[in-house]
């Protein structure tokens, strides 16, 4: 399985130490890496490489300079099928019809999800994860067009809540998403997303980092949403925990 990393804060914090600890796990996840973070103008800096983070001169150069941000999403890839390529490396990012930029990283597998199939011809790479983002933005666009105005905070939460409830049925789904204002976290797999609550921020990881933080499991089957270091949304339990006995129908997506 891949590993995720996410930070959401109410003020810029230094990311270098936690990123270095996170990318140390690349020996077990050598099929690609990615990193995104935002400045105070909500402008994204994003890097993706289809190689092990341990072999990346680019990443070493990035981490040799101070990185401060309120928000970051990182990913290291373990691919069972599919090419090692920049286009298959998370996180993925695109704009909705209002110009809002959405960024997503995924850990898991999509076995059943016909709603994602129309986006196979629209994606740049080969992964189910990119299709999830395209499907998500398509849903946001449809709701926006129905309303005739951009969706507000609660409405965006409700759309993502509906998507995670739908896609978590029969699939392995752990997601970190950022829409330039709100940070979304979701998992339906035991012990594949942890969170550490600090004074000014939350840090999310798939595998606890080797630091002094105390790590808690993120609640299963529940979408949680943050603005800065304030939790603004907590869904009901979707009840779609993925178990080893869950029936699987493979749609030939790749991680």
Automatic annotation (TrEMBL):
| Superkingdom in the source lineage | Bacteria
Q: Which UniProt keywords apply?
A: Aminotransferase, Glutamine amidotransferase, Transferase
Extent of the signal sequence: none
Tell me the GO molecular function terms.
Answer: transaminase activity
**Which residues are in the Glutamine amidotransferase type-2 domain?**
2-255
Protein name per Swiss-Prot or TrEMBL = Glucosamine--fructose-6-phosphate aminotransferase
Q: Which organism is it from?
A: Clostridium vincentii
